[in-house]
Each structure stands twice: as C-alpha cells, then as structure tokens.
Amino acid sequence: MSLLQGIAGLAAGLLAVVAGVLAAAAVATLIIELRIGARLPPQGPFVTVEGGRLATIQAGPNPSAKGTVVLLHGASANASDPMEGVGRRLAAQGFRVIAFDRPGFGWSDRLNGGAMATPAAQARAIAQALDNLGTGPAIVLGHSWAGALAAAIALDHPGAVSGLVLVSPVALPFPQAITLPWYWTLALEPPVLWVLSRTLASPVGLYALPRVGGTVFRPQAAPDDYIDTSRAALVLRPATLRANVQDLVALPKALARQAPRYGTLAVPTVIVAGDADPVVVTERQGKPLAGLIPQAKLVVLPGIGHMVQIVAAEALATEVAALAERIAAAKRAGVP
Predict the structure, then answer these.
(1) CB proximity list for 266: less than 8 A, separation 6 or greater
(2) Which helix (H) or strand (E) holds 246?
(3) For residue 317, what are the CA distances in angstroms to 51, 64, 288?
(4) What pLDDT is attached to residue 185?
C-alpha cells in the first residue's frame, strides 16, 4: 500500500467516525427536542401577529385598575424567567402581567427568520401583539438583551408604552468590537450553525445547562428549582439555539444604530441594576444609559448580580409599582 493510499484510508476512516458521531448526535437532539416539548408545553395564550404567533404567559386581573406590565426576557431564556420572578409578585399586587416569549424563543415563532435578530424587528412584533391584545399603553420591563428591546418599543412605537423599566440592561454600544476566534466565526456561518444546532449543540447544552444557569446568578446562588421553574431547557431546541446565537451576534450593530436616539425618549423610565453584576457591568451600561434618557431614575442594588428579576424581585416590584403610581398621578394631573 502506498503512502497516499494509507493517508486516504485514514482520512476516510476519520470521516466515517465524524459522520457516525454527528448521526448519533442528531438522533439524540431529536429525542431531546421531543422530550422538552412534551415536558414544557405552552402555558398561556398565543397572539397572532404578522408572520406567525407569539406565545405569552399571563397573570393578574384583566382588566386591571393598576394597569398592564409587559415582561420581556433576555438571552437564552423565555417568558417563564421574568414571570416566575417579579411577574407573580406584580400580579398579586393587582397588575395585569403579560410575559412574552420573544420571537424564536419558548413557543413563539421566529416570524421572519434571521431578520428578527434585532431589537427593532422584535419591537414591531411585540407592539403589534400588544395592539391586538388591546392593552393600551403599558409599562414595558426588559431584562438584559431585552433592555434594548424595551427601549426600541418606546422609540419606534411610543403609543404602546406608558413607562419603561430596564433591568440589568444591555442598551449601549460595546466599547470595542468583539473579535471572535476563527473557529467561532466558522461555526456562525448559517450552514455550519444549522448542522451544529441539529447535532452537537443540544446534547452538550443539556449537560452544561445547570452550571451555566448558576453562573449567570453570581454573586448570588441560583435557586435550587430555577432550571425547572424558568423552563430553561426550552432554549436547547435547535431552532431556539439558532435564534439565540443570531440575536447575540446582531446586537452590537443594532445598538450602534439605536443608542444615539435615547435622548428622544419621553416616557418615564427606571433603570434597575446590581452593582455586582459580572455579566452586564452597571458602570458600563445602566449608569451611562441613565444619563442619556431624559429624567431617567437609576436604582443600583448593592451586592446584587445580573438576575435582578429573581434575586431582588421584591425590590424590583416596588420600583414598578412606584413608576405606575407616578404615571397615574401625572394622568390625574392632566400631564401628557
């Protein structure tokens, strides 16, 4: 056997091994996807919008004398994350609470594929859903990635928003461009991303989920039941994995376009963040953002990390209620 024949045989063997691993991973992914879907079905009504449906979880009285609060989750999450934290408290106080699965997350359709990866695109869908629900102007609360989304709704669809609550928000351009290693750049190419999401990503993600879930809570510890109550496993389904990556990759350019407009925001705004947040550093995001939005109130919680809506839910609910009262008082006084 010649050297070339030996190399060719070795290459063929390696390709066969890789193909076998990918095939096994594809079967495992399909099983994981089916089991997650069966174990974590939709919890609330769907709202039809252009291109498909958005899933919601709703709580509290309808109609509510106190008004409506809309909850928007961050990356790698779904509507259960804010609902099971601050949302249930607000509903118990008499607010109508509507938590959305963002497009492509939880049980919401992606609507327009990769074109839905920006806050502006998702803002159109959420605003249309709120109009279809007939909520009237609502307090919109966005956590982390959805801080930019909540701000986009107020900028582009001001009639839908009576007030903003931006929680550990990502809303300002990053100080420098993020340079990804070549292998990440390759993995983000649409064909490669599709293959990875249908094969390796879900089994690896299922193994890593408990540790990743705990990491985002630092310096606090994640509640023992967080993975279950937040229905975090929904992010492991292939289509949601792709949507999550698309949203994260598209965010820097979207923020560069959106941030110069924050000075035009005219709705009452509260920014709530922890001074120990290692994920979205308050000194780089929440604090300077408060200086850009006219008359924004900044609330910095000592010792609190990124997951304010869970670990400081009572303090956050207090700020939402105070904002609602401020809005109601202005309305009674005839202030537009």
Answers:
(1) 158, 294
(2) helix 238-258
(3) 33, 16, 23
(4) 55
pLDDT at 333: 85
Cα–Cα dist 213/227, whole Å: 7
With a cut of 50, which residues of the chain have pLDDT below it?
A: 1, 3, 5-14, 17-19, 22, 180-184
Distance CA 257, CA 278 (A): 25
Mean pLDDT across the chain, nearest whole number? 87
What's the pLDDT score for residue 27? 61
Q: Which residues, 6+ apart, have CB-to-CB distance to 278 below 8 Å?
A: 218, 219, 305, 306
Find all residues with CB under 8 Å of 25, minimum gap 6, and list them.
199, 200, 203
Quick check: 168 and 280 in contact, CB under 8 A?
yes
Q: ∠174-176-182 over CA atoms, to 5°?
A: 110
Instruction: Quote the pLDDT of residue 108.
Output: 98
Contact 310, 226 (CB under 8 A): yes
> Tell me, what amino acid is at 143?
H
What's at 158, amino acid-wise? P
Calpha distance 147→167 (Å, rounded): 7
Per-residue confidence (pLDDT) for residue 214, from 0 to 100? 76
**Nearest-CA neighbor of 309 among 96, 165, 206?**
165
Using alpha carbons, select from 131, 122, 106 the residue that is nearest to residue 247: 122
Distances (CA, A) of 215 to 117, 184, 279: 25, 21, 9
Percent residues over pLDDT 70 in the chain: 81
Report the C-alpha gap between 255 and 278 in whole angstroms.
20
